[in-house]
Amino acid sequence: MTKLALAWSRFETSAKSLPNHGSRDWTGGKGRILGRKIAMRFMTKAGPVIALEDLDIEIQPGEFLALLGPSGCGKSTLLNLIAGILKPTSGTITIDGALVHGPNPGCGIVFQHHSLFPWMSVLENVAFGPRMLGHADPIGTARTFLTLVGLEQHAKAWPAGLSGGMQQRVGIARALATYPPVLVMDEPFGALDAQTRSIMQDELLKIWSQFRTTVVFVTHDIEEAIFLADRVIVMKTLPGGIKHEVAIEMPRPRELSIIKSDQFNFYRSQVFELIREETLKVFRRQK
Amino acid sequence: MLRHVVGRFNLQNWVWAVGGISLFLSLWTAASLKIDNAVLLPDPFSVVQGFVSLVHDGTLESDVTASMRRVLGGFALASFAAVPLALLMAFSRRVGLLLSPIITFLRPIPPIAWIPIAILWFGIGDPPSYFITAVAAFFPIFINTYAGGHSVRPEHVHAARSLGAGSKALFARIYLPSAMPMIATGLRIGLGQSWMAVVTAELIAAHSGLGYMIQANRLALETGLVLVGMCVIGVLGACMSVLLEVLERRVLVPWKMT
Q1: ipTM > 0.90?
Q2: B108 in contact with chain A, both atoms CB, cutoff 8 A
Q3: Distance between CA atoms of residues A189 and A172, nearest Å
Q4: Residues of A with CB under 8 A from a CB of B
Q5: Model-level pTM?
Q6: pLDDT tens across A236-251, in order?
């Protein structure tokens, strides 16, 4: 762990020369996401679909943001726009002032499925990013990050030999090994059973507390969003966009037991009502 | 199918396999006793005798070597042409559009139909046989590689680019391994096709090899030796298929798949 801290402090000093805007500058002010007047339309056989319309968003450096909403609300679309996987029909997205075009090392990605490269060992998967970016000692970095997610003894295994939860931990280690200012996660625990999911959420917060990289986390699980995030954005449908934001003012580090607290319950019922409205809206339209 | 035979050693599987071979041999013996005509159907024992005599006078070895050389040569030519071409067509839309009509048109032509033109171009002997085995192996390798070139997952491409991979690394480390299982399948089928084609080519366009040996012995009414040739072809073909499967699992596609 000391090796990791060392690597991180090196990274931080190199980042300090950059302009510092945010109020919470855990990453030396890196990882500010700014989206202006974003619109996204898809053409389908049934006609044009407006996935997002006139959306403005600002995410602070080091903020943990959850995008929550029923399916079809454009939450994954927004995440893919931030990651550069999709291009907006109109509007702009910048990370630290640089326009996003295409996936780039400024933004790490963790998917729900098929995250890892099955033809590389677990260790080589994690070493891939540092190797591509020409960092010194990619294998050493990979070992450090595998230790961080508790999988150093599986370094030589093929990804297919690991359980779903372990694969996602490797995916997180791989995405973090290049020290990206932003990390986007598209329902990373969506395919895991409830027990594993809860452990993974706890693990993710512990890991994130050492990095404080900006995280954009897409989920349709209300409790997951509230437990993890500094801010939950509830998305709306038809047309897709932001319905409401809820700032989650609960102290960190957060223990799993907080989901039983009154404050957590308050947030849960608030968010539940917001999502229920949206789901009913879709339901009525279908009738 | 072969995975049962070459898989982890399992006594019960082997007992069944040996049982199957014994059943085949006893049916053959019964049939040859019933027919009682060594020209129409010799019994297994006289085939073994024929095999021993051909091994002793050295002709079997030279025929096997000749056929093997043609198969491996043609197969290598086909692999080196088909794999890069198919990958190029999969990755470049323009090259794909340009070449796919030619491929679509050439593909249904069976290797045998190429033999007359191969003799006209290359004469009799090794060169037309190389040509025919290469043609036979080319299309299975090409078609599987082409499909493999399209099988890359977008998630892998996005993840690789977000980790800093440029287009060269994307090709070598993401597209190529994604296509590799399909390439390996293509190579396996291509080798089988090539092996079948060599016999056909040698029946007509060569003065050596197992195909020629079968043809010569047919004319001499040495049916026992014809069957020796056929059995050797069968056994060698199976061996090559198994070897390639081992190569696939050890070298080409060593990773575990879900």
Answers
A1: no
A2: no
A3: 11
A4: 83-85, 102-105, 107-109, 111, 113-115, 117-120, 128-129, 132-133, 158, 160-161, 174-175, 178, 180
A5: 0.81
A6: 887 888 899 999 999 9
